[in-house]
């Protein structure tokens, strides 16, 4: 994929500046031209029709150079997957082609001040108004919310939790840019205020009551999968940087890699990266085979890969020392990003409970 190669090469030189000022519009446009925003959607939807394994490979490559670039793939893919699975034929025809080609950018607006891990507690409301709905609420930490054209919003109706598409150009939508967060600093994050925003009923995705369990569930599952592969890429990159530094850094008369503690740290890191990547590959196989276990394996893969990214970035900073703390350090940037990966799309503690319950129920083969 020539377009992906070009993006990776650009990220290798420019990711530091993107982390400081946000992923530039021209890079987002280049990603769209390369097909990044619709990799696994069908050609009928103007996507590339890649398999889960191929999608994972791209997420891993982007994750190894820039979390913000990989996050662009993730958030657009989440909205596309949910719409493709639960949207009506008319909704798919209207929205998927413009989303997969990047003509429109999407954001996923679920999190609120009182609803993070427990999304059933969202306070955003969809109130009927004739043939339309009025949407009111405040959404936090919307990835690419500063530049999104349309948001997939989770809220409450009298029929239960519901999702709908809200165009950010609509009156009543206020975008509040967020800067200086711990990680993912290039992802143009925003808080979104929705003040009595009018949307047509045709923007509601799936029946009321399906918003969390079905539509949001599909989006989060897709997000976990690409995050898992992105984290595997982060961990692999941190290991590579640690090995390169340890193999050439001389302290006194000895190369750093000659120290037992350093060799042990690198050995443990390789094992953790390899284990996480194996789970990602298993998740890819199960998703491509449409096995019912794919949902669980994806949770496990994201858990393991996020953990590996945290461990390897910590080790990378430790081995590189002052160099790892420098502003242009990849391991230092990934050290900040990796922590966020253990929170988003399913916190580590929740994943551990889900994995434990699945194992105890005899689901592991």
Structure description:
With 365 residues, this protein is α+β, with helices and mostly antiparallel strands. The protein folds into 3 domains: 99 residues, Acyl-CoA dehydrogenase/oxidase, N-terminal domain (Butyryl-Coa Dehydrogenase, subunit A, domain 1), CATH 1.10.540.10; 101 residues, Butyryl-CoA Dehydrogenase, subunit A, domain 2 (Beta Barrel), CATH 2.40.110; 149 residues, Butyryl-CoA Dehydrogenase, subunit A, domain 3, CATH 1.20.140.10. The strands form 3 sheets. It has a 4-stranded mixed β-sheet with strand order 1-4-5-8, with helices on one face. Strands 2-3-7-6 form a 4-stranded antiparallel β-sheet, with no helix packed on it. Strands 9-10 form a two-stranded antiparallel ribbon. β2 and β3 form a beta hairpin. α6 runs antiparallel to α10. The longest helix is centred in the middle third of the chain and has 38 residues. The chain is globular and about 80 Å long. The two termini are 36 Å apart.
């Amino acid at each position: 994929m020539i377009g992906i190669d070009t993006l990776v090469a650009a990220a290798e030189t420019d990711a530091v500046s993107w982390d400081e000022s946000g992923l530039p519009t021209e890079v987002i446009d280049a990603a769209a031209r390369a097909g990044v925003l619709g990799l696994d959607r069908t050609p009928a939807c103007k996507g590339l029709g890649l398999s889960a394994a191929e999608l994972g490979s791209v997420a891993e490559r982007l994750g190894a150079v820039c979390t913000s670039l990989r996050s662009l793939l993730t958030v657009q893919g989440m909205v596309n997957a949910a719409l493709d699975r639960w949207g009506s034929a008319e909704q798919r025809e209207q929205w998927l082609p413009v989303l997969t080609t990047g003509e429109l950018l999407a954001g996923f607006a679920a999190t609120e001040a009182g609803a993070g891990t427990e999304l059933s507690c969202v306070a955003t409301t969809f109130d009927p108004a004739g043939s339309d709905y009025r949407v009111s609420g405040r959404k936090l930490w919307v990835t690419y919310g500063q530049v999104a054209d349309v948001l997939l919003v989770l809220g409450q109706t009298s029929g239960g939790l519901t999702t709908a598409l809200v165009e950010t150009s609509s009156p009543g939508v206020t975008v509040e840019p967020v800067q200086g967060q711990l990680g993912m600093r290039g992802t143009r994050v925003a808080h979104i205020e929705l003040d009595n925003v009018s949307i047509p009923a045709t923007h509601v995705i799936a029946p009321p009551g399906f918003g969390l369990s079905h539509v949001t569930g599909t989006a989060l599952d897709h997000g976990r999968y690409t995050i898992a592969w992105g984290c595997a890429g982060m961990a692999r990159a941190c290991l590579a940087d640690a090995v390169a530094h340890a193999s050439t850094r001389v302290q006194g008369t000895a190369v750093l890699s000659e120290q037992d503690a350093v060799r042990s740290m690198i050995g443990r890191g390789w094992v953790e990266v390899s284990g996480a990547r194996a789970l990602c590959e298993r998740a890819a196989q199960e998703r491509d085979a449409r096995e019912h276990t794919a949902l669980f394996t994806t949770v496990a893969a994201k858990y393991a890969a996020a953990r590996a990214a945290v461990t390897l970035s910590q080790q990378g900073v430790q081995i590189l020392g002052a160099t790892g703390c420098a502003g242009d350090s990849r391991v230092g940037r990934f050290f900040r990003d990796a922590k966020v990966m253990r929170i988003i799309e399913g916190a580590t503690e929740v994943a551990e409970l889900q994995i434990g319950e699945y194992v105890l129920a005899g689901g592991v083969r």
